[in-house]
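pasting for ref
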Amino acid sequence: MPQTDVRPLRSLLYMPASNRRAVDKARALPCDAVALDLEDAVAPESKPEARVALVEELTAAGFGHRRMIARINPLASAWGHDDLTALATAPLDAILAPKVDDAADVLALSTAMDTAGFAPDVALWVMIETPRAVLALERIAGAAASTRLAGFVLGLNDLAKDTGMAQLPGRTGFVPVMVQALMAARSNGLVLLDGVCNAIDDPARLEAECEQARQLGFDGKTLIHPTQIDCANRVFAPSAAEIAEAEAIVAAFADPSNAGKGALKVAGKMAELLHRDLAERLLTKAAAIAGR
């Protein structure tokens, strides 16, 4: 199920599904999406109660433009299937599934969503957070052609734990994984979100990670604290200079005097039809953000 939703996804904030006060606060936060978490953020003994709270909060609505995501427990765990059963009729944009290792896991998750009775437009996003998933990225992404799969979310904390790779400033060791995930996602029309920045009190590091992910072509970043939202929204949004350049390129190709031309000189730079297409895409994103 390739991605067709053009709404911005600059910032996705994780929130524990068991914390009703935090979830209520999310209704007024400027993030583009909220991921209500039933997995890592909830202790085993609290998962049934958190599941009930999540469904009640989603049903109460009031989240406005924000895409609503529910991160379930692994399907093979004691809670995964019960999570899907409980969430089947809740107003959600996507289910986010952790610990996916291969394309067979995607098929099993998508089939389980169908069986539980999810509406056809509820997508499946998966966490890329295990060594096996990294080695199977192309096959996992290819499953989008026949399943609900529509997005990748990097889970670098788990990947670091399982590999021993150090999460240092600059994330040099993870760049090959990020690029490989990008190629697999873009080849199959998937949303791609960067992993979280654990350094809540280090805004410079957060900004550097956002800049890195944007330069690598990611759609946005997952976040663990509301104070991180503004940075992600700013970095993953087109700048005023980028908007002006895009407008100039589109206007140049729309000029009747340039009809039939495949390449033009715009503001001292060569622009081809592919640059016009990129410019139109950027302006669409800017308009969607402005519409917020």
